[in-house]
Amino acid sequence: MQTTAVLSRDPAAPFSVETVDLDEPRDNEILVRIVAAGICHTDLVNRVLGKPDRPVLLGHEGAGVVESVGAAVTSVAPGDHVVLTFRHCGACPNCAAGRPAYCRNSTALNHFGRRPDRSARVTVAGLPVRDGFFGQSSFAGYALATADNTVVVDPAADLAVAASFGCGFQTGAGAVLNALRPESGAWLAIYGAGAVGSAALLAARTVPGVRTIVVETAAARRKLAQELGADEVLDPAEIDTGAAIGEITGGGATHALDTTGSPKVLAGAFAALGTGATVVVVGLGGGVPEIDVRDLVLSGKTVRGCLEGDAEPSTFIPHLLDLHTRGLLPVDRLVTRFPYTEIETALAEQHAGSVIKPVLIW
């Protein structure tokens, strides 16, 4: 079948809207009519893998309606409303332990994973497209997924809001609710108030008695963080945030989340922790943070990574959507919708800081 897709042929050039050919679903595949797809920084990073003769089809926060399923698929049916998320094998020790984000086969399944027989799912002008990103490549009117990364959701859910639970919102909310697990009386410092950090802030607000500090350079995002319920907002360009956090909390944050991927920010977050406190890192940056080993040992602090919010998506995504439906997790405040043909406008407004989470609508 033919559908419209947003392709990247050159990371230095604009995305292009093109007609592509999509294969019919194999026995283990699910054909989804995409309604919405969030744009994530991870999509932009992976544009570099394209070539003029083999463009990249990205998108890993898709949501839509199941059109048809292969003969071996039993967990979803045509007409189901679904959110697409990351793939996992379901059989390795980490998957068996309920940690699918750390699946030992994750790279092969998610990083433009191909069919076992190497046949093309998507072609353009007869040439194969680099697709299979997070097992979906959902920057298109239709996408092929599999049962392990397809989560059935309430048909009443707004799919434009639900889409980003597939990655960004799941990552931020899960880092708080699954990894950090703050309790009443905790002080949570969040570094970066983009989509992931803002989702983390909203998740923290669902836990009674947790107080939050948001550290963010952009004035518009600090203002939004205040509107979303942050107890304190700090501009790291204006003040010594470590000293300010120590004074606000009376000794240091009990929990912290770094969404920036910056070694310097992580080192500052670590230094601003109180005794026995933990900082969770979700940003995929590079470099080595300067962490005082004596402080690490004598203060009993912890630094740990967290991928996809330590989530089990089949249960966590419906849980988050339920919180949203009940008005406890207003992530719709973070979403701005754009027709898929306006992806360049969406990216420009996100880069300018006027948009937190751009979502493409088909």
From TrEMBL:
UniProt keyword Zinc present: yes
Domain of life: Bacteria
Official protein name in the record: Zinc-containing alcohol dehydrogenase
Limits of the Alcohol dehydrogenase-like N-terminal domain: 27-151
Pfam families, A to Z: ADH_N (PF08240), ADH_zinc_N (PF00107)
Cofactor: Zn(2+)
Family note: Belongs to the zinc-containing alcohol dehydrogenase family.
Every Alcohol dehydrogenase-like C-terminal domain range: 195-317
Keywords: Metal-binding, Oxidoreductase, Zinc
Organism: Nocardia jinanensis
